Amino acid sequence: MSSTLNIGLVGYKFMGKAHSHAYQSAGRFFDLDLTPVMKAVCGRNEAAVKEFARQWGWDSIETDWRQLVERDDIDLVDIGSPGSTHAEIAIAAAKAGKHVYCEKPLANSLDDCKQMLAAVRESGVKHMINFNYRKTPAMALAKKMIEADEIGEVRHVRCTYLQDWLVDPEFPMNWRMRKETAGAGAHGDLGAHSVDLARFLVGDIAEVVGETRTFITERPAEGTSSGLTGTAGEGTEPVTVDDCSLFLAKFAGGALGSFEATRLAPGRKNFNRIELNGSKGTLAWCFEDLNVLEFYSTADSRQGFKRIIATEGDHPYMHAWWPPGHMLGYDHTFVNAVADMLQAIAQDKNPSPCFLAGANCVAVLNAVERSVESGKWESVEKID
Amino acid sequence: MSSTLNIGLVGYKFMGKAHSHAYQSAGRFFDLDLTPVMKAVCGRNEAAVKEFARQWGWDSIETDWRQLVERDDIDLVDIGSPGSTHAEIAIAAAKAGKHVYCEKPLANSLDDCKQMLAAVRESGVKHMINFNYRKTPAMALAKKMIEADEIGEVRHVRCTYLQDWLVDPEFPMNWRMRKETAGAGAHGDLGAHSVDLARFLVGDIAEVVGETRTFITERPAEGTSSGLTGTAGEGTEPVTVDDCSLFLAKFAGGALGSFEATRLAPGRKNFNRIELNGSKGTLAWCFEDLNVLEFYSTADSRQGFKRIIATEGDHPYMHAWWPPGHMLGYDHTFVNAVADMLQAIAQDKNPSPCFLAGANCVAVLNAVERSVESGKWESVEKID
Amino acid sequence: MSSTLNIGLVGYKFMGKAHSHAYQSAGRFFDLDLTPVMKAVCGRNEAAVKEFARQWGWDSIETDWRQLVERDDIDLVDIGSPGSTHAEIAIAAAKAGKHVYCEKPLANSLDDCKQMLAAVRESGVKHMINFNYRKTPAMALAKKMIEADEIGEVRHVRCTYLQDWLVDPEFPMNWRMRKETAGAGAHGDLGAHSVDLARFLVGDIAEVVGETRTFITERPAEGTSSGLTGTAGEGTEPVTVDDCSLFLAKFAGGALGSFEATRLAPGRKNFNRIELNGSKGTLAWCFEDLNVLEFYSTADSRQGFKRIIATEGDHPYMHAWWPPGHMLGYDHTFVNAVADMLQAIAQDKNPSPCFLAGANCVAVLNAVERSVESGKWESVEKID
Amino acid sequence: MSSTLNIGLVGYKFMGKAHSHAYQSAGRFFDLDLTPVMKAVCGRNEAAVKEFARQWGWDSIETDWRQLVERDDIDLVDIGSPGSTHAEIAIAAAKAGKHVYCEKPLANSLDDCKQMLAAVRESGVKHMINFNYRKTPAMALAKKMIEADEIGEVRHVRCTYLQDWLVDPEFPMNWRMRKETAGAGAHGDLGAHSVDLARFLVGDIAEVVGETRTFITERPAEGTSSGLTGTAGEGTEPVTVDDCSLFLAKFAGGALGSFEATRLAPGRKNFNRIELNGSKGTLAWCFEDLNVLEFYSTADSRQGFKRIIATEGDHPYMHAWWPPGHMLGYDHTFVNAVADMLQAIAQDKNPSPCFLAGANCVAVLNAVERSVESGKWESVEKID
């Protein structure tokens, strides 16, 4: 392997943009042993993908992901398309000997996840899933603090991921509201992030009981544009995924958890919040104030919730960025993730989090869905 | 009935103090048609209750609640003793023709609640339960705003009542940790408040699924003092109530809810928080910032969460208090509650909330307890 | 002196109500060696003062303060009337051998302050000024922390006291907007509190430079009611005090300060905020979140602003009140102040803060007024 | 002029990095009519500047800014070096017919500013100063709201720019603490931002009175590294600039202002805060929560401070970025600024803010310095 890594990206909308920016920036801010080369971006609409490639500096385009996966000049396939496409692309990429970087959720079904995991393991390629919120300095710092036993044994986990972009019943359909593409609604899109953060910080979830709901069952048909800011077409279309999901969880380590994801919480824009109460302290974080980690320690001589602004030079990732107090935003999480991935590959290690984390996350979501059917607690399948 | 109302109070610890202050203050701040007279306070420790009576201005004392209930010069019996005593006292008081004002939870069992409700109805006395958080100007304002349809159809209810006074495993036992006196732990003590606030603002809860847990199963024995700030005696004693409770709820009106109560959340002192997401807006409140009601409206021309400082002269209860921004505290909720009660009785109406609210609250807690046993969703019994 | 202290209160509006509540409550919550007796309240409108006495439990009334001061059964004169009346009443009370408790500002002129101080010293009576914000647990805790050197040498003092009740130009006149009664506007009313808090926590102010302004120079005439919530009469009246005041300060100890007081800050209801930056840490407090003291220490192993909820049992005044997290409000500051005063008198000590603090506070306000005239830095007269 | 613009950057430290990222990103996120080409970066240390060029993708390097300015293939000179160098470089660049983009403060003296302004005007080149905080969506939104009269006539301006990186007396010297390079300390570095934001939103400042102070007068000598995170060399060096600056201001439009800048406020990392109180409402913003604009309107039916998360698609600059709630950080302000600059140049307009804003900002800082000498109010020179 040379000191460059040729990237082939599938998808050029919201995630395509975020990933492209990450490839452009990672090597500027971080000292990396492997330089990403933006070799090709793939999408079905040739004109649109060409324009995207021009704007973002991709060397070439493809309109069929199969072509991309087969190209000799591609070292890593980055999958930023809807969840329904992940398994097929990832498995093909692995078989073609490409490293795979995949957006969350890993796949829309647990079976797909298992096959993806088997494929990357079999081929020996590197694999990573983009749970980008792990990559905020605040959450990475929380992980270190928990490992250093700063909050003791975790007893309570409280996760809410609230958005409001579907409150308006006139907001038109897009792929995120169709079961065949998205697999689930808030449950898969937002819940996946919460479950991963909780697993990252606290560990495995053993049992769950939950409920999902679709409050707005029909929406204006999709127009010409897509993405998060939609335009309406003619007629209506049924919504086939949930608007929200709630569940309780028993962690393998003994903690009790509460999870809620919704796209119908007016005023909550990207309210991805987690709070952990341990025997010695509390940690709390919310993406809407992403640079701040709240910390309460029973060991402090003066006790109170501390707002740690996680931008000090010795905080995770911050050596690469700005002086203290010069806040980071959403896209920095992608740059940090890509930097982590490139360094891991350069060192011939698997990046973290990998497909195993992705599969175990889907296993939790899957158990919740079974619980919605059964009306009782369901065990979470543990993927090793 | 004269223009005074003679009060007999049972209990002289935390709640006794809060109620005494309310009787002394209600008629000062509010223009009331009925003046409370602090006639007698009752407790088993004669020396202690005498000292309390002297300090707080009670005319006389009793050491047996049965004596108090029978006294001709008592018009209303106020029950501030542990939950295990509520039913017997309340029923006796009702039979003796006294109005009854009872601390929450109404009783430790649903059966007791039903009998209490039957007793007060049969005798025709007035009855009230002290869900004091309803009586903050912020929560009373929230009720008015919901009635005025300012947040539309409620879809999400999110309640957490978090404290941390039991995080220290050396904190000694008291009656609140014994099943025979308290009935339950955080579930009954804190959960009752959350359930009532949710029922007050959103309506009946139809089904629940939940879990409780005792993380610290043994504590130092109780010392000579009691109340919330304990001193330890010799040896240890098993904790027979829960440390925490979590449950999901389906409201009769269609909303989905999440509830959590714990005494093991470091840094959360009295974190009684509720958030409601409706089709047109959001309301959020937390007792740790009790004067503030957060409000988001999709109808605003500039949208954002609004911090309404609920101390304006036209906010509920505030005509009686101070100019805007001159904040209220914990004890004001009791004064407001007592003022409401006295005015209702003066007008020959039943105060709100009454035992029916208390019974329906216990019905929810009861269904959660059944769900903990069964591991599945349980219906909430509706008391009419 | 007996174990009771007979109080004679002058004034029965906003401050009369707050003081009356304090006398009723101090001995309930605190164990005091001296019990206040609400002997007489004085006001010019006989019907109104009678009604006030009835509602608040004062034994008798007077309509001329000279009568009150001369009564043999009065031990302490409490002055809650406008600033223009303070000097005459206080001096007469002192000459009559009564202790004096006076609302802030001590007087409208520095000369009056000096005469008041001379009078109480000559007669040997006890004297106290009601800078009630010192009496919040948070500010009292801040004082202890500064004395324990927790923030090191103070370099920056930042005070803003912002209200908005005069933003509406149709809000009618009252005595607080007339120079002859109030002496000054925001400068005296709000600025006095800020200056006192800064002096309490940091020490003497040596020099100031400042500016005042009246943005709304005329208002509807006063109606029949008064106080903070006014009703308009016919015609208009010129406003003869400032709407706002700003000044910079050099403290004797080396710190630099910034002060601002205004009644024209929309949304700021009682935004009495102070921040101190020292060589080792920062303290910040705002009355709109009065129970919280923010603290940053450079000595913490994890650094961040800590929200100390100043309601723990070992925080100042909290032994008398509620369990942690059961928040205090505005009126509690008056109860704490009265409890301090009564204990000091019982122990034959002068209460704190006394007229000396009141006089030195006015000396600062006075120097600012001179600076507004001269356009340059002015020295603050030091009263010993 | 072609559809590309060749950039020559002077300086490769903190600002060099921020500007380089902006040139790389502006054309990706924004649809620009002019594409920046990263032609050359200039610094005195050849090895360091070469390494910087490699990492950030600059085509070539120079070690003498005079060479850079003279190069035919440079269209715009971007000055990111210390303030003492701005005038000479900018004037030479203008004379060479290059557009000039300059970091703040425009220069260390008002005379230099005037000469710079004269030079760019004479040569007719475009000129811009990088007051990057104007370019947050929140501040740009505030500007629009003020123009739409949403807060009425502004009466109060309250600016604090607080940092703490010099609290540690062992933090070593760097160019920012030497008068010959930096001109001033917090006053010029931080105060310049506050003055510009206030002028941007409220208008000209007519008179000021202020004070500056150096609390820590000597520091360890500078080591081999520089920038904000220093390493110490041997011995000590006197600090020749202020640690802090405070001043009051009279705005030409009638408002009163208060300004404070310091590097000695423990816990305040980049606390660049501004609050404006108008006759109809209040706006408040702090960089430490940069995506949020607080807004209080007396016109709201429910009144309270509104937290506008300025990330909606119709908020300034947000069409180019992410969906609502996907927060921006520090570096986004530079990208927005560069995008504005490129579009203005493409349309043959002068970008905003230009050197005139830079000069008038320095005029305010200069008047404060005169006031520190004179001890009285000083007029601000108005540059047209």
TrEMBL record, chains A, B, C, D:
<protein>
    <submittedName>
        <fullName>Glucose--fructose oxidoreductase</fullName>
        <ecNumber>1.1.99.28</ecNumber>
    </submittedName>
</protein>
<dbReference type="GO" id="GO:0047061">
    <property type="term" value="F:glucose-fructose oxidoreductase activity"/>
</dbReference>
<keyword id="KW-0560">Oxidoreductase</keyword>
<dbReference type="Pfam" id="PF22725">
    <property type="entry name" value="GFO_IDH_MocA_C3"/>
</dbReference>
<dbReference type="InterPro" id="IPR000683">
    <property type="entry name" value="Gfo/Idh/MocA-like_OxRdtase_N"/>
</dbReference>
<dbReference type="InterPro" id="IPR036291">
    <property type="entry name" value="NAD(P)-bd_dom_sf"/>
</dbReference>
<dbReference type="InterPro" id="IPR055170">
    <property type="entry name" value="GFO_IDH_MocA-like_dom"/>
</dbReference>
<feature type="domain" description="GFO/IDH/MocA-like oxidoreductase">
    <location>
        <begin position="141"/>
        <end position="283"/>
    </location>
</feature>
<dbReference type="InterPro" id="IPR050463">
    <property type="entry name" value="Gfo/Idh/MocA_oxidrdct_glycsds"/>
</dbReference>
<dbReference type="GO" id="GO:0000166">
    <property type="term" value="F:nucleotide binding"/>
</dbReference>
<dbReference type="Pfam" id="PF01408">
    <property type="entry name" value="GFO_IDH_MocA"/>
</dbReference>
<feature type="domain" description="Gfo/Idh/MocA-like oxidoreductase N-terminal">
    <location>
        <begin position="5"/>
        <end position="131"/>
    </location>
</feature>
